[in-house]
Amino acid sequence: MARIKTTKDESRKDVILTAAAESFRERGYKATSMRDLAEKVGIEAASLYNHIDSKSELLIDICFSITSLMNDFMTSVEESDQTSLQKVETILRFQIRQMVDNFDNNFVANREWNHLDEPELSEFRTQRHEYRKRMNHIITKGIADGEIKESINVPATVWLLLHAIYGIESWHRSKVRVDPAVLEENMITILIGGLKK
């Protein structure tokens, strides 16, 4: 019987999750079958159930691994002694790098989360909402401290910043390859430059 090939630093579940994230991005969650995933990791479909309970378990793991990563990073930034504008820049740089280096998982968490079942669906929505509220708070403090323009609408600004970064998915499809470091610096120049007072 075929076995899932792993490296020293990954488990069989890790290999399955990686294959799932790529397949969910390419085909969509609904269109990806257990047979598709099994073929991708080189085993029989029935053998997948030795490692996971269901396809929905994979979507839960992918989505919540991203929210956990983002929220943990947000906490570390909130607790730092950076100014509000520096905090926004640090968070944006982290998210840009995630969209470049950890694209499949981020794409799935951004685009396929609506296929989660309850109670995970509500919990995921809550975590996304709380993340935006934390960004709102940082920007609001930056306005109060005179670092960030007073004229901006804070919720709309947070929405624009996050969606600009989600738009990096088109960079992955582009035939004209911009260096990731150049992409990051250009985005930061535009996004942070637009906030500075």
Can you tell me about this structure?
- The protein is mainly alpha-helical and 197 residues long.
- Helices cover 69% and strands 0% of the residues.
- It is elongated, with a radius of gyration of 19 Å.
- The N and C termini lie far apart (64 Å).
- The mean pLDDT is 92.
Strand content: under 5%
What is the alpha-carbon Rg in Å? 19 Å
How far is the N terminus from the C terminus? 64 Å
Q: Biggest sheet, in brief?
A: none
What is the fold-level CATH name, i.e. the topology of the largest domain?
A: Tetracycline Repressor, domain 2
Helix content: 55-70%
Elements, N to C (H/E): HHHHHHHHHH
* CATH homologous superfamily annotation of the largest domain: Tetracycline Repressor, domain 2
CATH architecture of the largest domain: Orthogonal Bundle
CATH class of the largest domain: Mainly Alpha
Low-confidence spans: pLDDT under 50, at least 5 residues? Answer: none
Specify the overall morphology.
Answer: elongated
User: Please, how many domains?
Assistant: 2
SS-derived structural category: mainly alpha
Number of helices: 10
